Amino acid sequence: MARPRAPLLSREKIVGTALTLIDDEGLAALTTRRLAGLLGVSGPSLYNHFATMDDLVEAVADEVIREVDLDGLGVADLPWHEAMRHWARSYRDALAQHPNLVPIAVHGPGRRRSALRMADAVYGATVRAGWPPREATEIGALMRFFVAGAALGSFAGGWVEDPALYSEEYPHLSRAHLLPSRSRDIDDAAFELGLDSLLAGLVARRGAAGSAGSLDSAGG
């Protein structure tokens, strides 16, 4: 049998190559010509699988979201806030592996199947915990805002390892030059602190709402 003249393409191969290109060089590097060159095919052949480049970017973003662990959100005997904690950690980890895609991946799910499954799981777990539908929607948005910010990049790694820069003009930052060498620990600890605080606040709010409802029922 004669060997095919051109490499065989699949949606999976195109998405994987596009994701690697975006990870390495950013969204702006993803062009039809560049991607086709990496795949060893002609540009028009890509459109047999994706109608537009925007469709491809959506598919790549959905591949990233597919990595998020949603299992805890469906466990009936797991406290709601612990399920959200597990999901938020997994969500951050998935996004942090692909920071160039964060602005796309955290956008509304559109028609992306993995993103819709995640939204459904988060909303369902929140409503089952007793939150009214509107507040459940707001909590889903809040959690995504928080996780996306944590995944965009390193706060501690963004400082300069030059003590002279901070020593005189910025007296309260006299140890800021030490941050980059401990960036992973600091960024992780900051995320956990924020997640703890956010979930504790929501648990307290839910408890207060439940108490108010009980009093209203008793008084009625």
Topology:
Blueprint: H1 11-25, H2 32-39, H3 43-46, H4 53-65, H5 80-96, H6 102-105, H7 113-128, H8 133-151, H9 163-167, H10 183-219
Helix pairs in contact: 1-4, 5-8, 5-10, 7-8
What's the short story on this structure?
The chain has 220 residues and is mainly alpha-helical. It is built from ten helices and no strands.
Largest sheet: none
Q: Provide the structure class.
A: mainly alpha
The tally of helices reads 10
Distance between the termini: 82 Å
Mean pLDDT: 90
Task: Provide the succession of SSEs.
Answer: HHHHHHHHHH
Structural summary, described in words:
With 220 residues, this protein is mainly alpha-helical. Helix content is 63%, strand content 0%. It has two domains: 11-63, Orthogonal Bundle (Arc Repressor Mutant, subunit A); 65-209, Tetracycline Repressor, domain 2 (Orthogonal Bundle). The protein contains ten helices and no strands. The protein starts with 10 loop residues before the first helix and ends with a helix.
List keywords for this structure.
Arc Repressor Mutant, subunit A; mainly alpha; 220 residues; disordered C terminus; flat; 0% strand; Tetracycline Repressor, domain 2
